[in-house]
Design brief:
alpha+beta; five-stranded antiparallel beta sheet; three-stranded mixed beta sheet; 10 strands; 29% strand
C-alpha cells in the first residue's frame, strides 16, 4: 500500500475510532452519560475500576466511555446511543501528578460491555493522532480499523470489577501501539 494511502486509512480509522472525541463530534455534550457513569463515594457497584498502564506522561485528562456489547453500537456517537435508550456512560478525570491512574465507571448492571479509554493529553476533547493515547479492555493489537466488539468485551459483575488497559500511542508514521518505556 502506498504511504499516502496508508496514512489516509490510518487517519480515517482513528477518526472513526472515537466518534465522541473526533472533530465532527466536538459539539456533543461533554456531560452526556457522565451523571450515570460517575462512581459515588464508597461505590459498591456494579462498576468497573480501570487501571491505566503505559501512560506516556502526566499531562491532560483520561476519559473512559462505556458502550453496549455489539459492533454496531461500539464507539457509536453518544447522542445516538442515549436517544435510542442504549447504554452509554462517560467518566473523565485529570491525570494525577503521581501514583496509579484509575478511573471508576458505573455500569447499568452485571453483564457484558465494551469500553474505550482516551488519554487526551492536550485536553481539547478530541482525539489527536500525533499526541493522544487510546486503549481498550483485553488490550487488542490495533490495526487500521476499529477493534471488533468481541475483542474488547469484558464482563462486569454485581460489585466492583477490576480491569487493566494498556494505552497505545503513535510511534512513527504508520505504527500505533504501546510505548516501549512508559511513564508508569
Amino acid at each position: 500500500m502506498a504511504p499516502q494511502m496508508r496514512a489516509a486509512w490510518l487517519a480515517a480509522w482513528l477518526l472513526a475510532l472515537l466518534p465522541a472525541a473526533a472533530a465532527a463530534q466536538v459539539e456533543s455534550s461533554p456531560n452526556l452519560g457522565k451523571a450515570e457513569g460517575q462512581c459515588r463515594p464508597d461505590e459498591q457497584g456494579p462498576a468497573v475500576i480501570i487501571t491505566v498502564v503505559g501512560l506516556k506522561d502526566r499531562k491532560g485528562n483520561m476519559r473512559a466511555e462505556l458502550y453496549p456489547d455489539n459492533d454496531k453500537d461500539f464507539l457509536e456517537d453518544d447522542n445516538i446511543l442515549v436517544n435510542a435508550g442504549k447504554t452509554f456512560r462517560r467518566v473523565e478525570i485529570p491525570v494525577p501528578p503521581a501514583g496509579a491512574v484509575q478511573l471508576c465507571i458505573r455500569t447499568p448492571g452485571p453483564g457484558h460491555y465494551t469500553l474505550s479509554l482516551l488519554h487526551d493529553r492536550d485536553m481539547n476533547r478530541k482525539f489527536g493522532l500525533s499526541s493522544d493515547g487510546v486503549g481498550f479492555p483485553n488490550n487488542p493489537r490495533l490495526g487500521l480499523s476499529k477493534p471488533k466488539a468481541a475483542a474488547v468485551r469484558f464482563a462486569s459483575g454485581p460489585g466492583l470489577t477490576d480491569i487493566s488497559i494498556r494505552l497505545n500511542y503513535r510511534r512513527g508514521l504508520f505504527s500505533f501501539g504501546p510505548l516501549e518505556r512508559p511513564a508508569n
